[in-house]
């Protein structure tokens, strides 16, 4: 081709890859038939022996020569002396001088022999040689994927070794000065190389043989040397570029110096920086460093190449129809892979979009499925029907209780305990008001909230105002307070102090943000005077993480988060963290499981062992 | 329970098994996260470190303290000296004394520093600590099956070891005096133990840990000792009884002496002798010895127990709708698992029933799918719609050319060569007339036949009489003759000789049977005088196998079969082995592949190397 392509469509990319992989040929290897499950035959395999390889009895009885039985009749029994027959069980050898078996039910034992009352038909009750497999029969043709049942046939036919296609060796080269191995402790500025191991697991799952090379720093020579070695040793190679744009150029330079770059940039999101090159007929894939981009490039591009070379179609993920909960605007430039949570709310399966950042690994771990938005569409309207490729077991979806709202560690405990009971708790953290809105939109079954009303009472006012006829389940009381560095070096004790330090805030609509605003007003502190008032984090834990990492000095949060990050804590207020839901949920089996758990001793013990919680009212139900 | 149950339904059996497996608990083990794909978490896993664990730049640019930028304006640029900023690439650490990153596009390098024209918003272009995962976040709950994407999240969160459920250890005990190991040569009367390795492969596929014990002879004490050991070492145990009924009783005696037999006999076919016992809470399955029975018991009973204990649902095989080609009568006593071949003939997917014997391993290897006939049904009418659970890749079905008719080794060669081209040749051997009938019933695309007409011309007469407007493709000429033992010890030279030896015949409707009858009449030999005229085998190879195994002395067959079994051969006649099909097939891509192959040099070379064939007319087409 010689033409370098930039930002092409996924379909074009696949075509170029198919063309590029065409000359790649796999060799064969001989392996033990017993351990050949899932491998693909390289050549036809013919039976080495017949099965059975001898004439066998198909019954328990006696083997005879039928000529000796011709005279037998009900009225005229025939006596056979011992030497004229042999007792056989099912599967036993029938000697060459016999040609029929008489069932045990049809003989009468007498002294010195047996009596029969019916002639035998030649070859009755006999399993002929090769009845199952005759020697020379083709047991498996070429290019057949060996299943468990094929192992039976091969071994029965005396084929103890099979010639199969070698596994596709895929080299994985992690690059970047910032990378450290998983077994090392990363310093500030360093990243754990988890991508290469995830790639290895994926390749293993596809039936390949992943070969991971050591991490290579950002050096033209080192990358070039490793790549040359990998191209020699593997069928295809993955270069995992560091996520750092500023230093990523080596990769492309090296690829150009050793071979030909066929494209760089595919119109998928996440995953745009994907590239493809050929080095002496060996396909080399440039996979971006951001984990979510990396996943989609592996899943859509490298996997496509892998199965083309394997000359096999892979089993597609299951798909379900769902209704998108919120409008999603998507660029006309790219196919977008939108990660969604799934939940059956009412009769409809609802797909709620998750965070769209390429760097958020957890958005994949938390996702139940992926919706592909074609680049010819500007997005999806709320309520529109979409096809979701599901990432978890389909049968789990109906067992999932969907919770959207505020976060607390107790929700993790409940989630874990529900899993033990065969249910799932799908928990999205968007703050209390976000939870109420999700209930309104029918996206969620339940919403955990903590919203201080003007009357000083938690939650009821908000539910009345926004939802109406709903139910509140009292969950826990917890302490909110200032999370500060160990020893409180900046001596932060009241809201006035916040104007002289670096504050870390929560997002708008979260209960904690509303609590801060309430106290700021009460204490007559101007929010514009607080450095960091506009700095928003989505959970207590991420606020605490900033302070523990010394990138902030103080944030409002719950005691459990402070304990988790080993921070000091100055209590400010007690609050009610409750669960809101529509009353119809009271009859829902998933909710019943939730309820059973929060009222169990096991739950109480776990929560109390964390500290900072009061479970006095847990389980009480208020009809608003 | 204490009540022993005989011949219960599959549903009842499953319930009893669930009850019996209820107390079985799996322990946990710690494994390396990198190699944890597909394992199930034993407990929740919380992030050990945040990801990122430092404040990182989200852009290439400079890190600044936003306070130093407040005055900047398009009209009033601000100069920042070197000490007031740090150059950062995406992913780089942002030091604690900085709180914003300005993109490289928005700065102008000057001597001793940079100039900016816009103030920085605090925390702009910054990736906060824990943006992906905050320390303490639950990354995975209990009972979560680890996917490749989860490995990313775990490793990113510093979780290098995961606590997972141990694999279910399944003991496999092959029993029977007649069994020999796969690496041994079986004597007459001995059987290769292939079942245990097939079971091991299945258990591996389910995610278990198969533990195969050595073959145990038919001895009460030995079986008892091995079973005691296995029950101690494994979570569940499979006792694979020899197929010999007469000796199988030990198993049940042993089970009764060590524990409690819960049922023996399930109303499924094949697979009725299945049994289930509990020995001190350890489930023990009696799996019958016949390979096809064994497969269905493993697939329906043991697998059910395995996934109950694993507390996971397994992914069902794909199903397709098809139309059954022939009436199938089934017993009201049992659920029957009918093995079928699938082929898309015209617009319909046709399922053709295969042999129903429990001992024929190849009926599973050859099957494309399984139809379950419920025991409340007497069978299936021809043309009835059925659901087929498919055993091969769904996408292959449309690529399959269905051939039903006479067998010749060249059909195996073509099948193998079609596989290499991405097509399948599904070949059923029912004799020439069977092939013609299959075409009439629209079960097959093509039928290989060799039928001698009264005029001495092959095939055309039969096609005219039974099919009409069809097409004949000339394939090969081959030699038919007497297959006799090496050296022709019984001096068999003509048809008269057949009355004094043990003959092995072919089934009615086969071309070879018709050929024999033609010659017997011509030579005035009475078929009733031939010992073995009623002894029917289905292929040339199985006839040859009887003679090679000395269970017969002579049979009519093709030279290639005699060569394959190292027999002597006395030529009798040359015949035309041709392919019949409807003319619409000429446009069919599968047929085109077939045609391309038979006219290729590769095919000719392979056929000629076997010997006994003439390819003079190969590829000629006759419109009947």
UniProtKB/TrEMBL annotation, chains A, B:
Pathway: Cofactor biosynthesis; molybdopterin biosynthesis. Its EC number is 2.10.1.1. Keywords: Magnesium, Metal-binding, Molybdenum, Molybdenum cofactor biosynthesis, Transferase. SMART domains: MoCF_biosynth. It catalyses: adenylyl-molybdopterin + molybdate = Mo-molybdopterin + AMP + H(+). Residues 171-308 form the MoaB/Mog domain. One of its GO terms (biological process) is Mo-molybdopterin cofactor biosynthetic process. InterPro entries: MoaB/Mog-like_dom_sf (IPR036425), MoaB/Mog_dom (IPR001453), MoeA-like (IPR038987), MoeA_C_domain_IV (IPR005111), MoeA_C_domain_IV_sf (IPR036688), MoeA_linker/N (IPR005110), MoeA_linker/N_sf (IPR036135), PBP_domain (IPR024370). Its cofactor is Mg(2+). Pfam families: MoCF_biosynth, MoeA_C, MoeA_N, PBP_like. GO terms for cellular component: cytosol. The keyword Transferase applies. It comes from the Bacteria. One of its GO terms (molecular function) is molybdopterin molybdotransferase activity. Catalyzes the insertion of molybdate into adenylated molybdopterin with the concomitant release of AMP. NCBIfam families: molyb_syn (TIGR00177), PRK14498.1 (NF011068). Belongs to the MoeA family. This is Molybdopterin molybdenumtransferase. It comes from Fervidicella metallireducens AeB.
């Amino acid at each position: 081709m010689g033409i370098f392509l930039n930002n092409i469509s996924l379909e074009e990319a696949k075509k170029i890859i198919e063309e590029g992989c065409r000359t790649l040929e796999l060799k064969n290897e001989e392996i033990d038939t017993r351990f050949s499950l899932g491998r693909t035959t390289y050549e036809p395999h013919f039976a080495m022996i017949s099965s059975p390889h001898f004439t066998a009895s198909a019954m328990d009885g006696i083997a005879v020569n039928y000529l000796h039985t011709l005279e037998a009749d009900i009225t005229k029994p025939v006596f056979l002396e011992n030497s004229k027959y042999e007792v056989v069980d099912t599967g036993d050898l029938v000697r060459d001088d016999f040609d029929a078996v008489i069932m045990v039910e049809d003989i009468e034992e007498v002294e010195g022999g047996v009596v029969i009352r019916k002639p035998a038909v030649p070859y009755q009750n006999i399993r002929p040689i090769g009845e199952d497999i005759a020697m020379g029969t083709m047991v498996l043709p070429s290019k057949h994927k060996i299943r468990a049942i094929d192992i039976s046939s091969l071994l029965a036919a005396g084929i103890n070794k099979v010639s199969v296609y070698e596994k596709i060796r895929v080299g994985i080269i992690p690059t970047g000065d910032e990378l450290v191995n998983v077994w090392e402790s990363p310093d500030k500025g360093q990243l754990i190389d988890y991508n290469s191991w995830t790639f290895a697991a994926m390749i293993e799952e596809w039936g390949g043989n992943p070969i991971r090379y050591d991490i290579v720093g950002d050096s033209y020579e080192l990358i070039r040397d490793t790549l040359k070695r990998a191209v020699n040793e593997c069928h295809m190679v993955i270069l995992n570029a560091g996520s750092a744009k500023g230093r990523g150029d080596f990769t492309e330079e090296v690829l150009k110096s050793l071979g030909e770059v066929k494209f760089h940039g595919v119109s998928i999101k996440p995953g745009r920086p994907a590239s493809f090159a050929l080095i002496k007929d060996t396909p080399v894939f440039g996979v971006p460093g951001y984990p979510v981009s990396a996943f989609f490039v592996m899943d859509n591009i490298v996997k496509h190449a892998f199965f083309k070379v394997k000359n096999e179609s892979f089993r597609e993920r299951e798909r379900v129809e769902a209704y998108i909960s919120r409008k999603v605007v998507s660029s006309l430039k790219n196919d977008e892979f939108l990660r969604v949570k799934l939940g059956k709310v009412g009769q409809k399966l609802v797909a709620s979009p998750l965070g769209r950042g390429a760097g958020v690994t957890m958005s994949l771990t938390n996702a139940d499925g992926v919706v592909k938005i074609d680049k010819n569409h500007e997005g999806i309207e709320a309520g529109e029907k979409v096809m979701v490729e599901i990432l978890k077991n389909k049968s789990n979806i109906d067992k999932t209780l969907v919770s959207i709202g505020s976060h607390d560690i107790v929700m993790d405990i409940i989630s874990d305990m529900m899993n033990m009971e065969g249910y799932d708790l799908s928990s999205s953290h968007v703050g209390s008001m976000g939870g109420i809105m999700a209930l309104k939109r029918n996206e969620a079954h339940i919403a955990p909230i903590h919203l201080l009303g003007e009357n000083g009472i938690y939650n009821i006012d908000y539910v009345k105002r926004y939802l109406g006829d709903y139910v509140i389940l009292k969950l826990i009381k917890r302490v909110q307070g200032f999370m500060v560095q160990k020893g409180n070096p900046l001596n932060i004790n009241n809201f006035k102090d916040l104007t002289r330090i670096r504050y870390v805030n929560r997002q708008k609509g979260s209960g904690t943000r509303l609590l801060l605003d309430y106290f700021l007003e009460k204490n007559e502190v101007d929010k514009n005077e607080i450095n960091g008032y506009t700095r928003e984090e989505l959970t207590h834990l991420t606020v605490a993480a900033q302070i523990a990492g010394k990138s902030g000095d103080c944030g409002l949060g719950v005691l459990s988060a402070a304990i988790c990050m080993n921070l000091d804590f100055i209590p400010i207020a007690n609050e009610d963290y409750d669960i809101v839901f529509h009353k119809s949920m009271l009859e829902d089996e998933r909710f019943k499981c939730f309820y059973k758990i929060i009222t169990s001793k096991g739950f109480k013990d776990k929560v109390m062992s964390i500290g900072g919680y009061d479970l006095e009212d847990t389980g009480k139900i208020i009809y608003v």
